[in-house]
Amino acid sequence: MLQDEQKALVAKEAVNCLLQQHPPYSILGIGTGSTVNLFIEALAPHATKFKGVISSSQASTDRLLQKGFTVLDANEVDSLDVYIDGADEINPEGVMLKGGGGALTREKIVASMAKRFICICDSSKQVMMLGKFPLPIEVIPLASQKVASYLEKLGGVVSLRKSKEDPSKNFITDNSGWILDVAGLKITDPKALETELNQIPGVICNGIFAQQKATQLIVSNPAGVEIIAF
Ligand code: 5RP
């Protein structure tokens, strides 16, 4: 089965799980990325069963509105039952590395509002140790050089993310930040590194999701779909 077929399968399974487990008319947190796009597509026929959704990016918001969902402002909502999102890597404890799509800050905020985090991905994202995928770090543009020097001292190889549409320009996040992609970090203690990186002046958010780890993983592999609880 191709990776895209695996993503579609997991998106469909996530919709089935959600409709079975979740009380109707509640509010969902929705992430960002190609797997989430397939999830939105599969959930769209049920859009009106939910009171609303909190979105983690402008890209997801545009897609959700187009599909008939009510998108609410995070400030209007106290807490969420469930947040659903993909990941770039997930370890056996449910700790994730995220931000390949550049939406990590809002993803972490919405995830922090939710009681449960359901991660949806294909099995290529399952790793024993995080860090093969370069770690995305969103920074205030003014601080990018200072933050990059700090990360290099930790052994990281840092690249400033460029726009896919125009590689002569920097990638700009929904929060007007820049993204540093950091390869070569040894993430042996994800929680400690997440905390350390949060202390660097100018860092808006880093892509280690240890505090906001997954509580459930719905993962597809060529043989089918597996559900793992953490
Ligand atoms: C976006 C993310 C995504 O969840 C992550 O990049 C996975 O995306 P995809 O489902 O396209 O593989 O963190 O910021």
Describe, in plain words, how this protein is organized in 3D.
The protein has 230 residues and is an alpha/beta fold. The chain folds into 2 domains: 144 residues, Rossmann fold; 73 residues, ACT domain (Alpha-Beta Plaits), CATH 3.30.70. It is built from 6 helices and 13 strands. The strands form 3 sheets. It has a 6-stranded mixed beta sheet with strand order 2-1-3-6-12-13. Strands 8-9-7-10 form a 4-stranded antiparallel beta sheet. It has a 3-stranded antiparallel beta sheet with strand order 4-5-11, with helices on one face. β4 and β5 form a beta hairpin. α1 packs across α2. It starts with a helix and ends with a strand. The model has no long low-confidence stretch (mean pLDDT 96). Bound molecules: ribulose-5-phosphate. The site of ribulose-5-phosphate has 17 residues, from α2 and α4.
Task: List the keywords.
six-stranded mixed sheet, Rossmann fold, Alpha-Beta Plaits, 2 domains, 29% helix, 230 residues, binds ribulose-5-phosphate, 6 helices, four-stranded antiparallel sheet
